[in-house]
Every structure is written in structure tokens, then in C-alpha cells.
Amino acid sequence: MGTAGITVPLIQFKQVIRHWWYAQCCPKLKPMFQAVLAIITWELWKRRNAGKHEGSVSTNKVIHEINKKLHQLERVRYALMTNIPLLRLYIIQYFEGYKPIFITTRVTWQIPFHGWYKCNTDGASKGNLGPTSLGFCTRNNEGDMVYAMEVDLGVTTNVVAEVKAILQ
Question: Which residues form a coiled coil (predicted)?
């Protein structure tokens, strides 16, 4: 029995985070749901520090800052999606109803000009900082492979792998 006869189930902050992190939601919204935890925690921490050192910050200001940061994150993460609404309820409806339009372009490999060689490169990382490797092959103007190589780069990023593939 709690204060004033109100029973409140005790739940720890880490349990709230765990439930929120693993919440069942639209897959398009999963990264945003997970980002909400960090943003809310950050804004509460800022409010706590402002209250301790600078005076108080209103709850409405905290909510506004959370919404603003989420909207900015959505605009960056989903840059190709236009007209993302500002209000949380409408944002969820917007993402759940969003159907992307895919435009595909067929790309084919072309034989190099007479007397030229063509080098195709690729660098890849399993994770982004993770085990990486690069590979490339060079073909002559008849399409015959004249040289190929692969290199294990150890643990680094995909950008490093791509750049090193070009340098090789």
C-alpha cells in the first residue's frame, strides 16, 4: 500500500529502458524508439543540472526540447522523406503509413576503351568498426582479368577499407 492508499508497482529505470528498447513497433520506427531513450535521459540530465546550478527549467521546456531533437534526428536519418510533422502522434502515424518509392537503374559493367585498363575496387567492413578487407581486379580492353588482389585489413572502418582499396 503506497502513500494515500495508492499502490504503484515499483519498477527500476533500467527495466523501463529495457521494455522501451525491446518494444514491438513498426520496424521503420525502431531506431527512433531506441534514440528516444538517450534523448529523454539527456534532457532530464540537463534539467537536473539547470535546476541545481541555474534555476529551474519547466517540464514543458523539457518536452519541447525532446520533441525538437527527435524531429532533427528524423530529418537527418530520413533525409529523403519530406514533410515530417512536428507533433509526436502525427510523426508515428506518418512513419507507419509511409511507403517508399524505389527507383532502380540497371548498371552494367562496360569494357574499357582500346589500350585502357579498368580497375574495380571494393572495401568492406563487418560492422563499422569491425573486421575489414579489400579487393580489386584489373581488366584489359578485351575484358580479360590481368590482375586481382585481396587484402585483410584487420579491425577498422568501412571508409578506411574503401579508401585503401582505391589506393591499392
Answer: none
pLDDT given for residue 1 in this prediction: 45
Measured distance CA(49)–CA(138) in Å, rounded: 59
* pLDDT number for residue 148: 95
- C-alpha cell read off for 155: 579491425
The greatest distance separating any two alpha carbons of the chain, rounded to the nearest whole angstrom, comes to 89
Tell me how far the alpha carbon of residue 4 is from its chain's centroid. Answer: 45
* Rounded-to-integer distance, Cα 71 and Cα 95, Å: 12
Strand order, beta sheet including 130-139: 118-125, 130-139, 145-156
Give me the pLDDT at residue 48, please: 85
In the three-class reduction of DSSP (H, G, I as helix; E, B as strand; rest coil), residue 132 is classed as: strand
pLDDT < 50 positions in the chain: 1-3
| Inter-residue contact 151 to 134 (CB < 8 Å) | yes
Phi (first) and psi of residue 75, to 5 degrees: -65, -30
Helix, coil or strand: residue 149? strand
| Side-chain-facing half-sphere of 94: CA atoms under 13 Å | 15
